[in-house]
Amino acid sequence: MPIQNLLYAVPACGALALLYAAFTTAWISRQDAGNQRMQGIAEQIFRGAMAFLAAEYKVLALFVVVIAGLLVLTADPTTSSPMIGLSFVSGALCSALAGFFGMRVATRANVRTAAAARSGLSPALSVAFRGGAVMGMCVVGLGLVGFGALFLFYLGQFDALADVDGSAQELTRVVNLLAGFSMGASSIALFARVGGGIYTKAADVGADLVGKVEAGIPEDHFLNPATIADNVGDNVGDVAGMGADLFESYIGAILGTMVLGAVAASGKLEAAILPLLIAGAGIVVSILGTFFVRTKEGGNPQVALDTGSFGAAFVMLPISWLIIDYCVKSAAANGTPMILTHGAAPITTMALMWAIVAGLVAGVAIGLVTGYYCSKGKRPVNSIVAQSKTGPATNIIAGIGVGFESTAIPIVLIAGAIYLANDFAGLYGVALAALGMLSTTGIQLAVDAYGPISDNAGGIAEMSGLPPEVRGRTDNLDAVGNTTAAIGKGFAIASAALAALSLFAAFRNVGFRPGEELMLTNPEVLIGLLIGGMLPFLFSAMAMKAVGSAAMDMITEVRRQFREIPVLRSALGLVTKAEHENRDLTAEEERQVLEAGSKTEVERCVAISTQASIRRMIAPGLLALISPVVVGLWSRFALGGLLAGTLVSGVMLAIFMSNAGGAWDNAKKQVEDQKKDNSQEGNSGKGSDRHKAAVIGDTVGDPFKDTAGPSLNILIKLMTIVAVVIAPTLLKMASGS
Amino acid sequence: MPIQNLLYAVPACGALALLYAAFTTAWISRQDAGNQRMQGIAEQIFRGAMAFLAAEYKVLALFVVVIAGLLVLTADPTTSSPMIGLSFVSGALCSALAGFFGMRVATRANVRTAAAARSGLSPALSVAFRGGAVMGMCVVGLGLVGFGALFLFYLGQFDALADVDGSAQELTRVVNLLAGFSMGASSIALFARVGGGIYTKAADVGADLVGKVEAGIPEDHFLNPATIADNVGDNVGDVAGMGADLFESYIGAILGTMVLGAVAASGKLEAAILPLLIAGAGIVVSILGTFFVRTKEGGNPQVALDTGSFGAAFVMLPISWLIIDYCVKSAAANGTPMILTHGAAPITTMALMWAIVAGLVAGVAIGLVTGYYCSKGKRPVNSIVAQSKTGPATNIIAGIGVGFESTAIPIVLIAGAIYLANDFAGLYGVALAALGMLSTTGIQLAVDAYGPISDNAGGIAEMSGLPPEVRGRTDNLDAVGNTTAAIGKGFAIASAALAALSLFAAFRNVGFRPGEELMLTNPEVLIGLLIGGMLPFLFSAMAMKAVGSAAMDMITEVRRQFREIPVLRSALGLVTKAEHENRDLTAEEERQVLEAGSKTEVERCVAISTQASIRRMIAPGLLALISPVVVGLWSRFALGGLLAGTLVSGVMLAIFMSNAGGAWDNAKKQVEDQKKDNSQEGNSGKGSDRHKAAVIGDTVGDPFKDTAGPSLNILIKLMTIVAVVIAPTLLKMASGS
């Protein structure tokens, strides 16, 4: 069987994932949605989330049309085709659909998780995890269906199979066209991450500062009008934003490997097909993995999640070996090796396997380091807790110090992975290392998305006044899966760096004539390097300022409601009084408080977050898209420097911001676990000055870890993919002048 | 007259500066040192500062001996000489001496400034400025005497003049030997900046948090046992640290130009001598400039400082033109052009002038941008003030956002300067652009060092209970000179980037064989780039953690004294009570408070800062020295990437940290200027919640702007100069293997 026939299996695997998602969605809908009050709250969250998505997609639709038009108009017919517009629109559409479906199910699963938590931990885990699994499968399913179908279509259009043994010119053109799909996915991802990140943190910071700190009511309390917006934020930021993010990573890693495969020495079709086959197999393995995520009552959900996720990654190793071996042998059977090593010998299956293993080991190790820097009871978090004793200033200094320091080991690990992957299998090996980490994205994302669903379930339990043991169960669900999530974060950082590197190599291949080199001593390269190094700072500044000012609007609005709605003001008094006296509310008080809760003007808070995030996501998004174009029009060499500079400082800032944010978060939790002691000597536990300092640190960390930090991974890749897409045009302009 | 004879003028100009410093020192000693109480306080500050310097230099002496020994042992006799050890020791020694003399005079001038401020602003300005001028002239004087004498000595040793028209092999060897001087200066500078920065901020943060925030007594109050340490810190950090820093920049810029001059196409002696002649002329102009810094009573000291400093820079322009023209013509008279342009035509005087002007314009513009980002009443500081309304968390988020954003324009300006300087006169032009900014270091540093002297004078006035109008005058002195200081900071950042670039080019020239190129697509270069990008983060983490933990020790100690010394505790009560009732202390209360002040255990606080800073400066210093060696031993290509990576993220972090710190500082001051209004709606002025939030931001900014930020400029250059020094050895090892 010719290897290209195997390609039909790729969209088929994608379709399988979508089928799984559809069945699981139906199963979730059949679950108990709880009492009327719970359903009412869930409905508010659902409507808020959908309103945001509608507003966001309206803006993005316009953007996609404009960019697609520009791509069609400027496409160079000798190395590309106006069809790149089709690729771009497809990529954007698939990403948007994955976000839409995933979030729709997440906003159904949250209340059903809360409802299931009334009867026990095990059924709640099932609902939450399956909700996450729908998101995961939608991402990989739509990814492979769209990308795979487009690949087959272009192969047919451009007769790329005819030059299997030749110059690979047509294959390169096809792969360049597919870069448009990746660019579409990256663009949507950046806007979704930034917009969602601003939304969720403006609401979160606003709700916490006025509710918890100023008014002294518990987190997620229904008297706080920003609580619904906060819960909507978990969905638009942590579910839809993360889904688009991983869609982008997944496609980027596949595309990076394909481009390098297509241009690698002999340009064999096998080298370009291999990443797609691995991704397809990854879907099947991920689906199987989801069946292992179950726990008995009293069992440990952590074990269940780890079994599914690590099990899938582990099973992928021999399967990858088989696929690689098949490709290597198929190429050899046609007379030319798949790719050549540095020594110009044919690559071996084992060398490619080692590249994948190097990537996986680095990813897992980075995850463990990330876990170390953010975990309660470890040295970094302990140091923040210790320095919180002397107030917020020393807490902040300590947290920034921890975040800065935490860049060191991950960078050394990434450097090691690059060294090994390149040593074994050249730049193709580096790309494959990134892909290896992302092949089981389906189940990894299920575990990631399960977190915010449990978080939401907890919020609903709190707001609808379910008994404390229900909240305990949802908190328990939320707390586990952290190891898996940390390792997922390690994969995200390491794979972003490696994928950006392979896309960078692709840019170098398509954007320069033979003999032209990107030398570090070329002043144009140096200028690009400096400007590129600056962009992640400017981008983060925009994101953080957006959160800061949106949160201020939110705070002002909540304060206004607390002040101007009389029943709300007196209800707040009742709650804090009872809290202070350490007793439950009386039936009459309960009635008054409930009555006041229905008077909060929730929609105003939702509207503030929605408007602020949509308006504020545009500038940083455009910065990422336009700067490579502007710099590239001046000099392709400066553009090369720009990408390298953005990669360097972007990766550092991403690691710094994620880890500082995570460490502050857990430092606060660790203080809350301490014994209460408000004396100057002790100064520990909830309500102490140390706790107040730790809460401030946590708040500063929020936009770090949930807005700016995760967007930077996308920024790096989006800028590089834009460079890959425009490179042929730039080269032609340079030749013409 | 052969041009080399002019070289004798270089150490002569240096000697002139030292003479000026000696005369000025004698003048300062003759001024009134105030009453006994003032002298007692000044003596404590003086002894604390000298104790720190003694402890620091003891550690550094050991370090210098070890490194010098290593340099002697590993020197390659074909391209270098064991005499590089002599260069290194001389550079270290000159830097240390400049710090010693400068600080000695600064700790004499502070109390005399306070004493002079009793009679008026004008005499106080004279004393403070002349104190700063001694520091400035010691730096440039010792720099040129040491560097110039060493150059003449090596020229004699190695017969470098014989190959004026030839390969310049011996001239290159001489310049390589001089790199050791620069390395010595940079090493001392890094330790002095880090050590001094830790000292001053640990004391400042500790004194402020316990004194101002917790106990509610005014800043610099003598009841606060950390106040003396805080004032010592101003001297060891802002005077000695800054002196060593500028010594390093000055020498680095001269050396960078010399190296590129020596290796530039035709390797004419003129190209290597030119920077020394410009520096020598700069000293004469600086000395003349100091005579223009004087003001009538009621006059504006800002105008006086600006006249001296801008006047000197302006006068340097025609003088530079004359010197350049002389060199260009002298080279042409010998038959070969000084250097060649890109088009291989002889360089013109005007082209080199344009390079200098490009550097100067970029430096001034960056200074103005820096001023904008840190000034009261401008948008960035206003935004921090606005966001302080909702507490410390939003204050911190806003400040970090401002700092991140402030990297954008300076980087574009630096990029523009590189583009123009390179376009006009190649990499030699880039080096010359850096030198142009630093040629009048003598008077610039005088203005910079005048700040901490006035600050100290204010502290002494406060502690010794001088009338409020005296404190008003010293505050007034302290407040002006900010424009000049901001532009000095712009010069420091821009010149660091340009000087590092020229040293980087020098490394490329001496460390690689013809045909070897530092290509961005080489995985070793990329690995170096990533690791290099990480180092400034790790380095800053070390510096900030040192400040955080030293400040904690200080806070604990001050709290202990407040608690355990009974007379101190009751005196604090009297002061805050009187403050609260808005009245002066009664005579009896005054007596009790004074009595209590003599019971504070000041020496303990001084000892805490000294020990912490000496112990904690070692690890970051070694990181900077050892990492280029370790990476270079693995791969020279990775070392090239390492330097580029450190340059990129180091410059960004330096700008971010300096500007965020400055903006927080002035945001706090702006809140203090507001009308007092403690209502939730108003929330403004001293004592309001907004003010508390702004104080926290200011405290976070302290280690940013005074410890980590300024050290990064040195880190970048130190790593590059280490690479330049070890490059010949690395190249030989690579050839040998």
Automatic annotation (TrEMBL), chains A, B:
InterPro entries: PPase-energised_H-pump (IPR004131). It catalyses: Na(+)(in) + diphosphate + H2O = Na(+)(out) + 2 phosphate + H(+). Pfam families: H_PPase. Its EC number is 7.2.3.1. The record marks A485 as: Determinant of potassium dependence. Its cofactor is Mg(2+). The keyword NADP does not apply. This is Putative K(+)-stimulated pyrophosphate-energized sodium pump. It comes from Nannocystis pusilla.
